Amino acid sequence: MTSGPGSDGGGRDWNRSLPRSGGWGEYRQYRGWIIVAIVVFVGLPLLASLAVAAITFATDAIWYQSVGYASVFWTRIGSQALYFALGTAGAFLLLWINLWLAGRLMPKGKLRSFSLDDFMDRFNPERYAGAFTGGQFDGAPRRTGPRPVQSVEIPDINRPIFWALIVVGALVAIALGALMASSWSTIQLFIHRTPFGQVDPTFGKDISFYLFELPLFRLLQSYANVILMVSLIFVGLRYLIGAISGASMPTLARVHLGALVMLLLWTFAIGNQLDKLELVYSNQSGVFTGVSYADANAKFLALDATTIVAAFAGAFVLVFAYTRWRIPLALTLVTWVGVNAVLGFAYPQLVQQLTVNPNAKVQESPYIKNNLDMTRLAFGIDKWTVQSFTPQAKVTQSTLDAAQPTIQNLRLWDYRPLQPSLTQTQLLRNYYAFADIDVDRYTFTDPASCAPNPAPCV
Fold it and tell me: In the chain, what's the furthest Cα-to-Cα distance?
């Protein structure tokens, strides 16, 4: 007899002697119940959610159709579907291109031995010479000869990592597509924007810019930020896996990483300029909405400085990736951090505390006037004229007749004290309560004028 896997050399098959109740046999026994559990706890809730969504969608479509605004409903649905598809496809395409490019620039690793010392030396332009020099250190002789290396065997995992990152990238792309779909109104307002013909007093831009264009620029900047950060993480992981697998770190791979970092810093710089424009309708001063003295004299300077430094930092990162010049890059990064800390936070606070607060009435007066002018323009009261009014000492019937539109708008009850008053007087009846008070208009007509059919006058 011959022996083989699962036998004892005497021809006995030990696999057949194993009990059928354990292992895969037990799995086959309960496989039906596992499928039923998956259907009950996963499939049914999913079907219920889809049914609720379908019912809601159909109800909305019927309602818009009934009121004659079906075109509005289908415009919204079509816009959301289109922007979701474009946002998802664009994000996934950019992520895939970066992963594919990283695979092309980084040679595929093989079954190699991995040494942490050798791995760290890959990021050092001056490679380790391979030997220690003799001598004394703390009274102990130093070992001579080649450096001892502790290594482990690892397989090539580039392809599994690539497909895992592709799956994660698809989920990120879907999330970004959902972001674009939820911002469909922002995109539509930009497409159908109309100038107002009135500029703001701070930057001299048409007011429509802050309503139709600036929100879209902020949306695109956020979209680009997420794509670049995720791409940088994905590409960095792939290069790291390639380096661990024994592949070298070529110059083009470093340039690829440097370009992603540069673009990310440039989007930060663009975000600083958008922050500057958004100060037009901010309320950071706490007194009024709009640009304040500290904003115009400190934050504008801080945001402009951080924008310039971030742009130079991105360029130096790319140059460092190609030339490995450390000193310019280090100085730029230190300057960027310092500018953000000093000009971005400390300087505006000092201006507010030392210049504005001691003389706020004088310093903030021009900016408060801008706020009042823009408020009057927004509510359409910028052309109102002021007229003096002298109240009469006695009210006559002719005065009441002339002021009938005003008198008819007078409320008989004030809803603010009425609710607590009714609650106090009716507190002994605990079976009901007054959750809210509504004020409405009722028109009464003399019943004599409704004869012989007084029903409409009731």
Answer: 129
How far is residue 251's CA from residue 348's CA, in Å, rounded to a whole number?
42
Considering only 26-30, 113-117, 153-157, 419-423, which range has the smallest mean pLDDT?
Answer: 113-117
**CB of 364 closer than 8 Å to CB of 356:** yes
Rounded Cα distance between 313 and 330, Å, is: 9
Q: In sequence order, what DSSP letters do the residues of 98-126 get, joined into one string?
A: HHHHHHHHSPPP-SEEEEHHHHHHTT-SS
Tell me the C-alpha distance between 289 and 60, whole Å.
37
* Cα gap 165→157, rounded to integer Å: 12
* Contact yes or no for 176/228 (Cβ under 8 A): no
What mean pLDDT value characterizes the chain? 79
DSSP annotation of 344: I
Instruction: Look up residue 6 and give its two tokens.
Output: 């699962």
Q: Is the peptide bond before 452 cis (omega within 30 degrees of 0)?
A: yes
Q: Is 84 helix (H, G, I), strand (E, B) or coil?
A: helix
Residues pairing with 140 in the sheet = 137
**Facing residues of 136 across strands?**
141
What pLDDT shows up at residue 394? 79
pTM score of the predicted model: 0.68
Q: What is the mean pLDDT of residues 405-410?
A: 84
User: How far, rounded to the nearest angstrom, does the alpha carbon of residue 272 sit from its chain's CA centroid?
Assistant: 16
